[in-house]
Amino acid sequence: MSDGQRGQARVTIDRQLQRWTLAKSVLETAIRRRSAIREGARVRFRPVADLQQVDVGLTGSHDRTMAGHRQWHVSGWAAILIAPLIIPLALIARAFGFLKDKPADLTASDVALYLDDFLHGRGKPFDWDDFTNITLADPALDNIREQAAFVPLPLDASGRERLISLLDEVRTLDEVR
């Protein structure tokens, strides 16, 4: 293993450790609050949005270019309360053809950023999910997206090699165009 690979592995391990530390602190806080409530203490809760905005320095340099391609996500209690209303309406609208999937108009460089960020552990929590689940307008890029979606997670050596080859293919497409 070369020094560059060791350094990259160290950075990846450090980032994962930061994520685990953050998750551990959030869980410990939730456990303390729950036990305090059981004991009858008054507890001030942080809104879910505050917890989702915690940043441990893991975002990539792609924030400016990828911001226009992100989807809006609802989670937590808001999703539980809204789901009984939205799901039946969406099913009815879909059945009558009101909701149609609009393919995303990503360029080859955008797709390369998604793949590169995923390979190097950068990006926001839903970036990979957004990328693998949204149809792309360009058939060649959509084919690459579909192949990337079938790479088993968590990544092993063969999955990493497959994503690297897909990244090379996207970069080749970008140079040709």
Please trace the helix and strand order, writing H or E for each element: HHHHHHHH
| Total number of helices | 8
User: By helix and strand content, what is the structural category?
Assistant: mainly alpha
How many angstroms separate the termini?
A: 36 Å
Q: How many strands in all?
A: 0
Uncertain segments of ≥5 residues (pLDDT<50)? Answer: 45-65
Q: Helix proportion of residues, in percent?
A: 55-70%
Oligomer: single chain
| Overall radius of gyration | 20 Å
Beta fraction: under 5%
Q: What is the average per-residue confidence, as pLDDT, rounded to a whole number? A: 76
The total domain count is: 2
**Major sheet:** none
Outline: flat
Quick recap of the structure?
This protein is mainly α and 177 residues long. It has eight helices and no strands.
Structure, described:
- The structure is a single chain.
- This protein has 177 residues and is mainly α.
- The chain folds into 2 domains: 1-58; 65-177, no CATH class.
- 64% of the residues lie in helices and 0% in strands.
- It is built from 8 helices and no strands.
- It has helices spanning 3-38, 48-52, 63-66, 77-95, 108-119, 127-133, 139-149, 157-176.
- Helix 5 (108-119) packs antiparallel against helix 8.
- The longest helix has 36 residues, at 3-38.
- It is flat and about 55 Å long.
Task: List its traits.
177 residues; mainly alpha
